[in-house]
Amino acid sequence: MGIGDSFVTAGDLDAERLTTINPDPESVQLLTPEGERVEHPDYEISLSDAEYCGLYRDLVMVRRIDVEATALQRQGELGIWASLLGQEAAQVGSGRAMAPDDMAFPTYREHGVAWCRDVDPLVLLGLFRGTNLGGWDPRAHNFGLYTIVIGSQTLHATGYAMGIQRDGGENAVIAYFGDGASSQGDVNEAFVYAAVYNAPVIFFCQNNQWAISEPLDRQTRIPLYRRASGFGFPGVRVDGNDVLAVYAVTKAALDDARSGQGPRLIEAYTYRMGAHTTSDDPTRYRLAAELEAWRLKDPLERMRSFLYKQQLAEKSFFDDLDAEADDLARNLRRACREMPDPRPLEMFAHAYSDTPPLLAEQRDRFGTYLGSFAEEVAR
Amino acid sequence: MGIGDSFVTAGDLDAERLTTINPDPESVQLLTPEGERVEHPDYEISLSDAEYCGLYRDLVMVRRIDVEATALQRQGELGIWASLLGQEAAQVGSGRAMAPDDMAFPTYREHGVAWCRDVDPLVLLGLFRGTNLGGWDPRAHNFGLYTIVIGSQTLHATGYAMGIQRDGGENAVIAYFGDGASSQGDVNEAFVYAAVYNAPVIFFCQNNQWAISEPLDRQTRIPLYRRASGFGFPGVRVDGNDVLAVYAVTKAALDDARSGQGPRLIEAYTYRMGAHTTSDDPTRYRLAAELEAWRLKDPLERMRSFLYKQQLAEKSFFDDLDAEADDLARNLRRACREMPDPRPLEMFAHAYSDTPPLLAEQRDRFGTYLGSFAEEVAR
Amino acid sequence: MTILTLAKGLNEGLRRAMEDDPKVVIMGEDVGKLGGVFRVTDGLQKDFGEDRVIDTPLAESGIVGTAIGLAMRGFRPVCEIQFDGFVFPAFDQIVTQLAKMHNRSAGNVPMPVTIRIPFGGGIGAVEHHSESPEALFCHTAGLKVVACSNSVDAYFMVQQAIAADDPVIFFEPKRRYWEKADVDTARTPDALHTARVIRPGADVTVLAYGPMVKTAMDAATAAEADGHDLEVIDLRTLSPLDMTTVLDSVRHTGRCVVVHEAPGNVGLGAEVAARVTEDAFYSLEAPVLRVTGFDTPYPASRLEEDYLPDLDRVLDAVDRSLAF
Amino acid sequence: MTILTLAKGLNEGLRRAMEDDPKVVIMGEDVGKLGGVFRVTDGLQKDFGEDRVIDTPLAESGIVGTAIGLAMRGFRPVCEIQFDGFVFPAFDQIVTQLAKMHNRSAGNVPMPVTIRIPFGGGIGAVEHHSESPEALFCHTAGLKVVACSNSVDAYFMVQQAIAADDPVIFFEPKRRYWEKADVDTARTPDALHTARVIRPGADVTVLAYGPMVKTAMDAATAAEADGHDLEVIDLRTLSPLDMTTVLDSVRHTGRCVVVHEAPGNVGLGAEVAARVTEDAFYSLEAPVLRVTGFDTPYPASRLEEDYLPDLDRVLDAVDRSLAF
Ligand SMILES: Cc1ncc(C[n+]2csc(CCOP(=O)(O)OP(=O)(O)O)c2C)c(N)n1
Ligand SMILES: Cc1ncc(C[n+]2csc(CCOP(=O)(O)OP(=O)(O)O)c2C)c(N)n1
Ligand SMILES: [Mg+2]
Ligand SMILES: [Mg+2]
């Protein structure tokens, strides 16, 4: 018996992978890549014109933030940036499906969800610039801190949901994670806990086809949404580039969870259009053709076509939106460049809720030491 | 929404749990509790009379070892003992299904598998007595070391199976684990690796209904064999008290794995008749009625009935077997009592393949220190 | 005053904490109906219900990971790790999440999670049931680490740990669970992060914590017969250390022996030795000596009496210290 | 002689090990087609195939756990952990299985597994990408721990680690990956578990390893200007320590400063200080001083220059040592 007979090897990339992006019968879709509204037996959506426009605005603003951040990284203003390019619909659709007091636990790439939860994009830039480690108040935004250790936050989300069960809250939780993360023990333990306690948590997997350089077949040999069935709760795949479908599927799942039906897994089938981060070079491991194929499924384009075709928005709406996005980008750029570095002794401030005596001593000695240079300079 | 509405709570024990031990349509059975041979569309077995008798002999000998070990613990000869009472068929059936060069990775309770792999029961006693940590050569027996950290060995088994794929071996691997272990991240990561690499490993879960005091519903809300479907490989439940069914199902799975069909999950549905270990008191958490119900499904009794009914063995066979088991027990008892303690400096011997200078120094100093007492006594 | 075993002291302390604050929840393997394998949580599920005393799936990363989530929701989870050797599956959640969450949030998120770990050897157990991993947690910034050694501290310290807003790794000396002492629950306890001189003496300072405190006290009694007057300190807080108490002592004795069961190499004893030497260099008549487990995996239990520091090895170190 | 970066030295060393022994396999996240995020395994999958350079699922416990199984089947796995902060999900497999398997088997099972970990800060990264967890592994009996600091050692030490029958945790100074040196691949290397005096000196012994070796050397150069003659030792082996080399040096300088990026509390510096003091008590003119990261979580990268020991902090410690 050899190895590799029964799974797709990296060498087969072109042949095999391109098939996976064809319209997927397993996947919920409400808007075709061309912007046509289609029906789905299980999921319906009907929003006001303003709401449709609002979703499109979110997509545009979020992409603009992302593009600006990538540029700022190139200019040396950020140490690194993890782009969400291509995943805007998955994030905005799920982010907007949440009720205000639902709670989200993100990875490091959920800038679109952060936008929906009113986290200042500048704070996100600070994290990648190296001026903070997150630092927002999760309670103020119902949005957890960015979590870099893959999969950890799915357990936090599950525990938070167990807390809701215990304090009589009426809300639900979303745990965001990636296709790569699905392999981590923690994520599977979160499935176990959520199932056993019937906790109101939605596991939202953005399957963007890649975990840095590793294609999906290094993590699973069946579609990821089917993982849930092994743990005894429902899983569904949604077209992750279709903001309406993502919104509808997530909203239904959150409603289910809130009404005591327990966990759900949503696999948002999408694509990481950019590099893993600005430090990555995807040309080393994937083909341009794949990218081209996915470009035809762009989440913004299809929503724009929909708005046009359905005449839900005037041209002025699009123009104003562009202007608004330009403003945002300009302000962000300026504010980022002006973002001050933290002061050295701040690193001692939040290691603990108090500062234990030995640590205070360490801080004070370091303060004195730093002061001695100032004196030297002064002298 | 409250908690516990949707899962069985410990308070419902009697009402709910007793239903789960009724004949299970999901489960493969070839021998009824009364010892009648029944057919199964997917699994067949036909052994020689001697082979049937051999399986029964294994069951008897293994139980005798276990009973003797429990007694030795009560007498203070062992620190603790983890009894396999009730699980003999699951272990002997799977152990005997292995080809000689198949490899097994056990937990701490696989005394029946150890028997099938020719590991001296005395060495097992040594582990629970505290004279060794295992210490047999896994290569000599194709039987890994007892593993106490729940679930760890499933990854070792998977890696070993990946090794077989790489060196062109024709063998397969069994990873033993319990119902409790199914919740560990490691076990689920093993499923991921095995599925992705299509490794020739059988995950053999002895679902004995309990993880110390925790009933199955603290680990899962659906039957455990279905976990595999979430990872894309087949799972099957077998009557774990039916040695013939376990043998047939395991053999088929091993054959599949050897022929390149990848991993399989087998859930052997059985019951831990004794305490978790001799340190445990199961009356604190489970009902006598449950035990009684399972006593009717005893794995030895049904095989004995089968042999009788089918007239596969003479009375002398049973008498000789009793005598053989008595001998074994007697020898084991004597040898256990005579088992010498290791000598103090032996603890330094195998920390590393060599003994680094600082450790040698530590050892030598301790030797001198111990020697000084001998001198004192001598003086 | 009631006479309580150390295990019962913990049990009463946990009960008190649960009564005082409805947000306190207990979680772990077998903590419910069974009351834990050491019965430390005995009766609590019966009285506080399954929502507050939670039997978890057999997955330690899950225990700590969900505890973090519960804490973010406003609860004060107390996690039980069944034995020292089984904390490692939870190590990632403890080190990368629990220890860092407060800092990551710039102080916005308190992390009042207590992790109880029965630790140490001497009970004749199989592998992984006798270890002393405290140094690993002490090295991890963001955690606080304590160890109790007697029923009184057990009762009070567990309540103080639960009341703290930082994560506390709470070590319990499992082989002392059945030792008894009078507990006056009305007393005002010492602050959590303080060491305590439990036997004043003039010749050598002996530092110990958890199960080794009794060993150190026994050694002090035995040393008396040889005319050596040992000062014994129960460290109680392992991170942060209470160096004030330690240095005060060493400055007057001039000699120091530190005792723990964990392997010596990069253990807590090393830290104590390094600090004492740095801060009391001119007071030291001898180097700080360490009496510890050996730098091998914990041996089969028939060897543990040789592996573990005992009265004689402490006295041997005292003699060596005095010989400098 | 070829001029190689440290990363390329490792790459060549790995290649050589794979050529020499068909049982050597490399496994980790992105080690294949991408060649690792630092390109240390660049080109190896192309040349040795997917069976020997294995892109694994994103699960570190799985990487180490399956490596243990591969080792039991006769392979010599070399695991890459992508960044220091991501070793923790594998910690249980490393501590309870990898470190103990040989001992559990009474010597029957060799465990020739190498775990490569890029470690340390100074590259302006986000959380978890700049840590120094070596002390945790040093405290774990059954593991050997080394750190390379330059291209030559990178090339030879990685081969020696792979050839060893014990598990070796192999730390690579990530911020020095791009530093170059002449590598004579025909040379006979020093034994793996030896320290090396890389600058002889008379006044103060400075001990460093990994990324801090360069910092220590820079400090020595700067100290020269002040008339201080530092002896610099590259520890290379962190567990077991090479105390012979260290003590020889301290016995003639009488002063010792130990430098690492990891937090000081219960760090490797504590062990060095404790041992040196114990074994060279009468030679010491001053306590062993430690220059380390602070006892806080690793800060946001804009603060890392303050967090990390640098030339000035080493010199400050040297001055303090000389002032005793
Ligand atoms: C435990 C852990 N291991 C490794 C990494 C390094 N790493 C960062 S992102 C990443 C890939 C994640 O892939 P996926 O989960 O699909 O999310 P995506 O980046 O595609 O959004 C890896 C390996 C990490 N952050 N955490
Ligand atoms: C990681 C870990 N956590 C906890 C334990 C303590 N423990 C030993 S056996 C056991 C229950 C195991 O249940 P299961 O997997 O069903 O196996 P069984 O004992 O029923 O054979 C527990 C919790 C352990 N050995 N390892
Ligand atoms: Mg991905
Ligand atoms: Mg069980």
Q: Radius of gyration of chain C, Cα only, in angstroms? A: 19 Å
Major sheet size, sense and barrel closure of chain C: 7 strands, mixed
The termini of chain A sit apart by 77 Å
| Residues in β-strands, percent of chain C | 15-25%
Mean pLDDT level of chain A = 93
The CATH superfamily of the largest domain in chain C bears the name Thiamin diphosphate (ThDP)-binding fold, Pyr/PP domains
Percent in helix of chain C: 25-40%
Cα distance, first to last residue of chain C?
A: 45 Å
Main beta sheet of chain A, described?
6 strands, parallel
Mean pLDDT of chain C: 98
CATH topology of the largest domain in chain C: Rossmann fold
Describe the structure.
The complex is a heterotetramer, with 2 copies of chain A (379 residues) and 2 copies of chain C (324 residues). By secondary structure, chain A is of the alpha/beta class. Chain A has 2 domains: 10-342, 3-Layer(aba) Sandwich (Rossmann fold); 347-379. Chain A is 46% helix and 9% strand. Chain A contains 13 helices and 8 strands. Chain A has helices at residues 13-20, 49-74, 88-97, 111-116, 121-129, 138-141, 152-167, 185-197, 243-258, 288-295, 299-309, 315-338, 357-378, and strands at residues 27-28, 103-105, 173-178, 201-207, 210-211, 214-215, 235-239, 264-269. A 6-stranded parallel β-sheet of chain A has the order 1-7-8-4-3-2, sandwiched between helices. Chain A has a two-stranded antiparallel sheet with strand order 5-6. The longest helix of chain A is centred in the N-terminal third of the chain and has 26 residues, at 49-74. Chain C has 2 domains: 2-183, Thiamin diphosphate (ThDP)-binding fold, Pyr/PP domains (Rossmann fold); 196-323, Rossmann fold, CATH 3.40.50.920. Chain C is 36% helix and 21% strand. Chain C has 12 helices and 14 strands. Chain C has helices spanning 6-20, 44-48, 60-72, 91-98, 101-104, 134-138, 151-163, 212-225, 243-253, 268-279, 304-307, 311-323, and strands spanning 2-5, 24-28, 53-55, 76-80, 114-119, 144-147, 168-173, 180-183, 196-199, 204-208, 230-234, 237-239, 256-263, 289-293. In chain C, α1 runs parallel beside α7, α3 (60-72) runs parallel beside α4 (91-98) and α8 (212-225) packs across α12 (311-323). At the A-C interface, α6, α7, α8 and α13 of A face α3, α4 and α5 of C. Bound molecules: thiamine diphosphate (2 copies) and magnesium ion (2 copies). One magnesium ion binds at residues 178-180, 208, 210-211 of chain B.
